[in-house]
Design a protein that fits this description.
The complex is a heterodimer.
Chain A lengths: L7 E6 L2 E6 L4 H7 L23 E6 L2 E6 L8 E5 L3 H17 L4 H9 L20 H9 L5 E4 L6 E4 L13 H5 L11 H7 L14 E2 L11 E2 L5 H5 L4 H5 L21 E3 L3 E3 L16 E3 H8 L20 E8 L15 H15 L4 E6 L9 H10 L3 E4 L6 E2 L6 E6 L5 E6 L1 E6 L1 E3 L7 H4 L24 E3 L9 H19 L25 E6 L11 H9 L4 E7 L5 H13 L4 E6 L2 H14 L7 E5 L1 H5 L6 H19 L9 E3 L4 E4 L3 H12 L4 E4 L7 H5 L10 H14 L3 E4 L2 E9 L2 E8 L4 E6 L1 E4 L3 E3 L13 E3 H10 L9 E5 L16 H15 L4 E6 L8 H10 L3 E4 L7 E5 L2 E8 L4 E5 L3 E4 L3 E3 L3 H8 L26 E3 L9 H19 L3 E3 L5 E3 L9 H5 L5 E3 L5 E3 L9 H5 L5 E3 L4 H12 L13 H4 L5 H17 L1
Parallel strand pairs in A: 1-5, 10-21, 12-19, 13-14, 13-19, 14-15, 22-23, 22-24, 24-25, 27-28, 27-33, 28-29, 33-44, 35-42, 36-37, 36-42, 37-38
Antiparallel strand pairs in A: 1-2, 3-4, 3-5, 6-7, 8-9, 11-20, 16-17, 17-18, 26-45, 30-31, 31-32, 34-43, 39-40, 40-41, 46-49, 47-48
Chain B lengths: L6 E6 L3 H10 L8 E6 L7 H9 L4 E6 L10 H18 L7 E5 L5 H18 L8 H23 L1
Parallel strand pairs in B: 1-2, 1-3, 3-4
Helix pairs in contact in B: 1-4
Chain lengths: 1123, 160
């Protein structure tokens, strides 16, 4: 054995030798070497006591061996340890059998013993209970928490752990540490449960499951670091404990961090404080917090989450069983005048529907019932989703539940409701989910005065319909739910819009605070043979405790092309990065493997390291031996090590063929082309122009204004839309950076993001060509004139927009006490048009209110299917009902019947709450006609190669996360072309486009990822397969009859490369030799002289072996079917 | 008997690779026979990659892409599924069990699902046993030696 270094001791455990600092215990030394020694009473960070004796090992003393407890035996000098000898196993078995007799009721102990091969005890049970008297709890209470609230009392079989005199004591702070550390589950603090709610149950799933006081907020938290709950942490309360600091090997725990106040000089402020869930204690009749099986929708969401507390299984808290039936109760705290929340929270109907579908996906036998008032599926494609839920068997019951009864024995929950026949039904459910209202975050409520921002009556930021992004204070903008309850896409749009509004203010100082870093010149390595450096990371003990890092280095060092292999404690630490740079220069490395954690978080860091060392950043590849080895195979260090070696070798196969990739950039034409001059197009044009970029605005009509100019509509808050549109048009015409073409259309668009070239043709067929960096589609939508309900046969049947017009012109002449019937959902939400036009309910309520105001004796009857007055519009719906507007619901299958005889109209329908037929003879019937896409939508779709959805609206890149982008870069959409929407929403969306557009136009040059496709023109047969396969229209067959990939449009997916029958296309950074190199070196079968290696098609052009031909035939079919 | 088969997992960067990371941070345990190779998209996977993996002696191949409809590049995972179906046919034709290759779909948030499919695949391949095409492990050494000679020659050339 080699002599140990100074202050180090040499220890040999089961034949493996390592050096550890003098004083390290055998147990710790073994764990560092990846050898697991079982123990019950050892707890990291605490002084060992050697009480349980499970960790017994043999040490060599001279010629003989001695048994010691490994957790408390410090190593001094050299030591030889046997942790798995027969004597040790025999002794451990006896110890475990004695412990089992000591604590016969402990399930935890039985499982622990069973893992070590001890199923039963030959000793008779000494006593009842679960305690093995190891004293860990008393030690943690006394030594760590500094309380000494519990101790070991009595002797022999009377010995127990208890507080002094077995009475509750003020010493106990109910921190739960004793319960937490107890290895046998002997301590139950539930009798303190009321106090425990403080110490143990924090965070978003309060009431649901125990959570520690230091933890990651959730699995995908950004930044991914744990935080301490200061209010409940024992250290912050008493100064004791501090275990986390002792345990953290990276020394990342810093108790001294304080909240800091920073003074910043800014030109604009965007408020995005978000929302919190409604405080359910205000509606305690629903039982949240005291009925075990009542959860909030947020808690249910975390139950459904694969990374949640139950790993995605829905379980009842009362008994841990999976529920057979779940009921959702909607509108808890929303649409609730009693709580002062007259508004609708907008998102809960769809959230509940989504949770119901996911729950049923998990367990198809689960019965899900949703109790609701109106199904507000008003968004794009929401009605389809609602239908899908019904098809999947989700039961929707339109009835409000007034309270939840918990059954005393079963803990089931009984609900009482009225069924569709208005009969009272009592039904029991295993679980109840409450859809809690969205309430504005309290963060800014107290500070609103300091901010100088007006709030509305519910505490949301006050905005107006025609300016939904600006608060009452100039320069302060609002994004997200703080403006009004809204779902993710609307939030993303609004916040992008706020960013654009802020950018308009800051246009003159854009980029003035940006600092750039200049890397050293790049070394040309193209002619150098591969010289690979391998850096293997311990990641503290994250990797090193399981994977034998030294062995990985050892096994890698001699592999071909490897000139350097070494290991580091933390490869990502700043000092190690400096070492890496030195090594790269010193050893002339030109390929680097970092075997550590995931490239998803660290690739960017190491690419920078390469850049700083003068290497092309693409000469790096990471091997993930933490997430894929040490963390997931911790029980099998040997296999984990072997796998790590294999993975590093596999990576080597990939890095050897790596080539430097020059990241290109394309110059950006900093102007925008906007198609459509309605409210959305004009708002986008003005905002982009205010940001400082030239705009080409093309409108097919002879005047600006779009649908809003032709169809007089109003907003709920009474803003004058006509004046607004005229003002917009004037500003557009006068703006120095906007070039306007009316009566024109775009006939051709070529190019890619940053550099488009388009042809604009005016009515007189004169055409002009413009260059621009982005394209915005704002073509809008129109009201479809109905063909049903005798529309057109009687001048007493009009549409809502025609009513708007009459109201605005004040030429509605109705006799006193006349009756007006409004029929909603006309020719929409049916089989032909399975979508909701979103704006009709609000328009109907607005018009009804205006009618009542102008002529209070009018009888207004609104026939509806679901009143979709979402958000603050609900308050107007409430007001309309208070003012006497009648709302009568009908079912889709039983629409109202309208007959015209001579001059009389008769509307017959069935009132579902009265359960009887009603007939009305109105003087006017108003139809809510559907909103449909423009006639030329297909033309625009073909022109830009952007998709339309089944309803004839343009399809965005991602419904939730990229709601104003098309999937091809540089193309955007806003307004009703996206889906029907209110004016305020169109304005938000137009500003959102302006925000997104600025991220491209503000750059002089746009960097393109190096990971793009390249065509070898010598191999290209111009078969068009790539053109059909590419989702981004990046490849095109050029003039010389060869495919060309527009670099700026390529996203680097490799679809074209894998589909190319001539193997003419390669994807940079994922070339075939790089991938097959990795696959080949995984097992490194190589090619011994006796067996010829595989013949790869890239070596043989397009003549291929049989299976490739076969694949090719399929490939052609595939390309066909993709068209 | 110890399961010493090797399963190559071709994982999409956007979903399965992220899910594997999440399985790691959740410390979920699954058999160590899986070897993950990152792909930009499962749509980049050619039949060739899978076939050559078998040719080089891998015992099973698992392809893991985004949920259908959730591909970062729109339809790459759908194409991958078709290709994997085709590979299954080829395997059958050459007398190899088509179950040795499988395509799975999962989202980046499904760490537990990654552990589950990895376990399923490793157990399945363990039951099927080593691939008959599998190279003798001693060839590993021969292969490395051969490559070393090649590398030495290259490096030698550099010195001159």
């Amino acid at each position: 054995m080699a002599a140990p270094l100074p202050n180090m001791a040499a220890v040999t455990v089961d034949g493996r030798t390592s050096q550890v600092p003098i004083g390290t215990t055998i147990l710790d030394a073994a764990r560092q070497m990846g050898i697991a020694i079982p123990t019950l009473c050892h707890y990291r960070g605490m002084t060992p006591a050697g009480a349980c004796r499970v960790c017994l090992v043999e040490i060599e003393v001279g010629d003989s061996r001695r048994m010691v407890s490994s957790c408390s035996y410090p190593i001094d000098g050299t030591l030889v340890v046997h942790s798995g000898s027969d004597a040790v196993l025999e002794a451990r078995r006896t110890v475990l059998e004695l412990l089992l007799a000591q604590a016969p009721d402990s399930q935890e102990l039985k499982e622990f013993a069973a893992e070590l091969g001890v199923e039963s005890t030959s000793f008779s049970a000494a006593r009842e209970g679960r305690c093995v008297l190891c004293g860990l709890c008393t030690r943690v209470c006394n030594d760590v928490m500094g309380r000494g609230a519990i101790n070991l009392y009595g002797r022999s079989s009377e010995r127990t752990v208890e507080p002094a005199y077995d009475e509750t004591t003020v010493q106990c702070q109910v921190c739960g540490a004793c319960e937490h550390v107890c290895p046998t589950g002997a301590i139950d603090l539930s009798r303190f449960s009321s106090e425990l709610s403080v110490a143990h149950r924090t965070g978003y799933d309060k009431y649901l499951f125990k959570r520690p006081n230091i933890e990651m907020a959730h699995a995908q938290a950004a930044p991914r670091v744990p935080t301490i709950d200061r209010e409940n942490c024992v250290y912050f309360k008493t100064g004791e404990c501090g275990l986390c600091e002792k345990v953290c090997q990276a020394g990342a725990i810093n108790y001294d961090q304080e909240e800091e106040t920073l003074d910043l000089e800014v030109g604009a402020v965007v408020l995005t404080p978000g929302f919190i869930a409604f405080d359910a204690t205000k509606r305690s009749e629903f039982g949240l917090g005291f009925c075990d099986n009542v959860v909030s929708n947020v808690q249910f969401e975390s139950l459904l989450s694969a990374s949640g507390p139950t790993a995605g299984h829905v379980l009842r808290r009362s008994d841990g069983n999976a529920p057979k039936s779940v009921a959702f109760i909607q509108c808890i705290g929303s649409r609730d005048v009693g709580c002062g929340n007259e508004y609708c929270s907008s998102v809960c109907c769809m959230a509940a529907t989504k949770e119901a579908i996911i729950a049923k996906d998990h367990d198809p036998n689960l019965d899900v019932t949703i109790f609701f008032l109106d199904m507000r599926a008003f968004g794009k494609d929401f009605d389809r989703y609602y239908q899908r839920a019904q098809d999947a068997g989700v039961r929707y019951v339109r009835s409000f539940i007034s309270r939840v009864f918990e059954m005393p024995d079963s803990k089931n929950l009984q609900l009482t409701y009225l069924d569709s026949k208005m009969k009272r039904v009592e039904e029991e459910f295993d679980m109840v989910v409450l859809s809690l209202a969205l309430v504005p975050s309290p963060t800014l409520r107290e500070k609103s005065e300091m901010l100088g921002v007006d709030l509305n009556q519910w505490g949301f930021a006050q905005t107006i319909d025609l300016n939904p992004l600006d608060t009452s204070r100039p320069g302060v903008f609002v994004g997200g739910v703080f403006q009004e309850p809204k779902d993710i896409p609307d939030t993303v749009m609004q916040s992008s819009g706020s960013a654009a509004r802020a950018m308009s203010l800051l246009a003159s100082v854009r980029g003035s605070k940006v600092r750039t870093k200049a890397p050293p010149p790049e070394r040309d390595v193209t002619d150098e043979p591969p010289r690979v450096g391998v850096f293997v990371c311990h990641c503290g003990s994250n990797i090193g405790s399981v994977v034998d890092v030294a062995a990985v280095v050892e096994q890698t060092r001699d592999l071909p092309y490897v000139v350097l292999a070494e290991h580091n404690t933390y490869t990502c630490a700043d000092d190690t990065q400096d070492v890496m740079k030195d090594r790269i220069i010193e050893h002339r490395l030109n390929r680097v493997i970092v075997a550590s954690c995931t490239p998803r978080t660290h690739e960017a860091i190491f690419r920078d390291t390469l850049r700083d060392a003068g290497l092309n950043p693409y000469l790096l590849e990471m091997t993930n031996i933490r997430d894929q080895c040490s963390w997931v195979h911790s029980a099998d260090p040997e296999e984990a090590t072997q796998k790590a070696i294999d993975l590093v070798r596999m990576t080597l196969g990939r890095v050897v063929p790596l080539r430097p990739i020059r990241e290109q950039s394309v110059p950006v034409k900093n102007s925008a082309l906007i198609i459509g001059g309605g409210i959305a197009g004009m708002t986008a044009a003005l905002t982009i122009a205010d940001e400082g970029f030239p705009v080409y605005l093309v409108e097919k009509e002879s005047a600006l204004g779009g649908t809003a100019k032709k169809v007089v509509v109003g907003t709920l808050d009474g803003s004058d839309v006509q004046a607004f549109v005229s003002r917009l048009a004037e500003r557009v015409s006068a703006h120095p950076r906007i070039v306007l073409w009316t009566g024109s259309r775009v006939t051709e668009i070529n190019g890619h993001v940053g550099a488009f070239e388009s042809t604009i043709e005016s009515l007189d067929s004169s055409s002009v060509s413009v260059e621009h960096g982005v394209v915005v589609v704002a073509t809008g939508a129109v009201e479809q004139k109905p063909t049903s309900f005798e529309y057109g046969n009687s001048d007493k049947v009009i549409t809502q927009s025609e009513l708007c017009e009459k109201l605005a012109r004040d030429d509605l002449r109705l006799p006193s006490s006349a009756t007006i019937v409004m029929i909603q959902c006309v020719e929409q939400r049916d089989e032909e048009r399975p979508y909701c036009s979103r704006i009709c309910c609000t328009t109907a309520v607005r018009n009804a209110l205006q009618l009542k105001e102008q002529q209070p004796d009018l009888n207004v009857v609104v026939l509806y299917r679901d009143m979709r007055t979402y958000g603050f519009r609900e308050a107007a719906y409430q007001e309309a009902r208070e003012k006497g507007v009648l709302f009568v619901r009908f079912e889709k299958d039983e629409p109202p019947q309208l007959t015209v005889t001579d001059d009389t109209i008769s509307v017959r329908m069935r009132d579902l709450s009265l359960q009887r037929e009603l007939t009305v003879n109105p003087e006017l019937v108003v139809l809510a006609a559907p909103i449909v896409g423009q006639d030329d939508r297909q033309e625009i779709s073909d022109l830009l190669k952007v998709p339309l959805n089944g309803d004839g609206f343009f399809l965005e890149a991602h419904v939730k996360l990229r709601p104003v982008d098309f999937s091809s870069d540089g193309l955007f959409l806003c307004g009703a072309a996206h889906s029907p929407k209110l004016i305020s929403e169109a304005i938000s969306q137009a500003c959102a486009v302006a925000g997104r557009v600025a991220s491209i136009l503000s750059k002089k040059e746009m960097p393109i990822s190096g990971q793009i496709a390249q065509v070898d023109v010598n191999k290209c047969i111009a078969c068009m397969t790539c053109v059909h396969l590419c989702p981004y229209h990046a490849p095109a067959v050029g003039k010389d009859n060869k495919a060309e990939v527009q670099n700026a449009a390529c996203m680097g997916c490799g679809s074209c490369a894998s589909g190319c029958p001539a193997r003419a296309i390669t994807l940079n950074n994922y070339t075939n030799d790089q991938i097959s190199g990795a696959i080949e070196s995984l097992l490194w079968a190589g090619s011994p002289p006796s067996s010829p290696g595989p013949i790869y098609p890239e070596k043989t052009g397009i003549s291929q072996t049989r299976w490739h031909k076969r694949a090719l035939e399929g490939g052609d079919q595939e390309a066909d079917s993709d068209q | 008997m110890k399961n010493d088969t090797i399963v190559l997992a071709l994982c999409c960067h956007y979903c399965a690779y992220a899910a594997a990371d999440m399985a790691g941070s959740m410390r979920l345990q699954y058999p160590p026979n899986i070897r993950v190779l990152r792909m930009p998209c499962t749509g980049k996977i050619e039949e060739n990659y899978v076939l050559s993996a078998f040719e080089y002696g891998v015992d099973g191949v698992m392809v893991a892409g985004c949920l259908e409809g959730g591909c970062h590049y729109l339809e790459g995972n759908l194409r991958a599924r078709k290709r994997i179906e085709r590979v299954k046919g080829i395997l059958e034709e050459i007398g190899l069990e088509p179950e040795r290759v499988e395509m799975f779909n999962l989202s980046s948030a499904e760490g537990p699902r990654f552990a589950e499919i990895s376990t399923e695949m490793c157990e399945r391949i363990g039951k099927l046993g080593p691939s008959p095409l599998r190279a003798d492990r001693s060839r590993l050494k021969a292969g490395i030696e051969e490559l070393q000679a090649e590398a030495d020659a290259v490096l030698e050339g550099e010195k001159r």
